[in-house]
Amino acid sequence: MYFYIDPGTGSMLFTILIGVLSAAIYLLRNVAIKLRFAMSGGRQKSADAARIPFVLFTDDKRYWNTFQPICDELERRGQTAVYMTASPDDPALKQSYSHVRTEFIGQGNRAFARMNTLKADVVLATTPGLEVYQWKRSRDARYYMHILHMPNDATLYRMFGLDYFDAVLLTGEYQVRQLRKLEALRKLPEKELPLVGLPYLDRLRARLNEAGPAPEHPVTVLLAPSWGPSGLLTVYGKKLLDALLNTPYHIVVRPHPQSFVSEKPLMDALMAAYPDSDRFEWDRSNDNFEVLRRSDVMISDFSGVIFDFALVFDGPVIYSKTEFDKGPYDAWWLDDELWTFSILNKIGVQLNEGDFNDLGAVIDRCLNAPGFREGRDQARRETWANIGHSAEATVDFMIKTRERLLNPPESKPSRDAA
């Protein structure tokens, strides 16, 4: 006889199994520590001595651009840390640090099982969902921090994704207001919410300053859509590409890497129908720096690369009108308009399907409207704290937090004490 277990039930059962195994490992390890302590006559080092001062955790290599500036700053200050990744080909694993160790801890649930028995003072992660899914707080880890990896709303995580961190490191004051409202609605204790900024944007900005302006080139339009059913190429496909080729501009199409996995038939068909030419090219390079540097305007949908282009490369954007369902996200709890959408009309032009017949005019308007530069300045002020110093601010907070954990302030005597 065969039994069917639906995916939701299977995930729940696996989560329970992970919890049971984590508890068993924790119990066995504590028994082993006590036995070693007894056999050594009480001379075993304190359990705290084995605790890793700082752990940086990522479930995917694509967040290395956020962690590298932080690891570099920890290394510069001589701080002992371990960077743990669930990607076997994470670029971090090729780094040569003296104080920061990099470690592949397995993929998927194996990585979470490792994190669930972690022994550390401070854990910094880009991964949300602590205490919600398979990832649980380790009994031997003292403090959990989440750092944002995009300059957008802190409520655009799946529900409860940030609730159980001790601190969330933010990029703009509007995010503080969002999370405080969620805490009040859910009757949660207030987290620490320091404004540290965006280390990866700082690194991108420094790289651009060093490289200088792009060499002379024809006016270039970069189409950089996201993937999925609402992505520009999925919705409009050939119709949009034809409209772009009817403009006088050089066109570069850079699909999201996931499109070549989840939408391979579509990508294969489009690349066959629109081969590279002197006016049209596909870009699949691992590093998007050069294509961003030589682009004069970007067309996108809801991809975060919009803000990379607007904030760092100071370029105008054309964004598509998309229907956004707040249902699965923390944003559902709040009536406020999302900052991500409210700022778009200040940094660029909205694209509608009716504009395809004269897309060149839309591009011209976007390129020449002076007000969008002011909008980009506003966006930087609102969503990019500590420009140029984000990694320093992040490490400052990490070190101060650990010092506070190791040396808690002495409690003051009660007024009623005699």
Protein traits:
Rossmann fold, disordered N terminus, globular, alpha/beta, 2 domains
Structure, described:
By secondary structure, the protein is α/β, with parallel strands linked by helices. It folds into two domains: 46-198 and 388-405, Glycogen Phosphorylase B (Rossmann fold), CATH 3.40.50; 211-383, Rossmann fold (3-Layer(aba) Sandwich), CATH 3.40.50.2000. The chain is 40% helix and 14% strand. It has helices at residues 7-39, 64-76, 109-115, 173-186, 199-211, 232-235, 238-245, 259-262, 264-273, 289-293, 305-312, 339-342, 344-347, 359-368, 371-383, 390-406, and strands at residues 52-58, 81-85, 100-104, 119-125, 140-147, 167-169, 220-223, 250-253, 280-282, 297-300, 317-320, 348-351. The strands form two sheets. A six-stranded parallel β-sheet has the order 3-2-1-4-5-6, with helices on one face. The chain has a six-stranded parallel β-sheet with strand order 9-8-7-10-11-12, with helices on both faces. Strand 1 (52-58), helix 2 and strand 2 form a beta-alpha-beta unit. The longest helix has 33 residues, at 7-39. It is globular and about 70 Å long. It starts with 6 loop residues before the first helix and ends in a 12-residue tail after the last helix. Mean pLDDT is 88; it is low at 1-8 and 414-418.
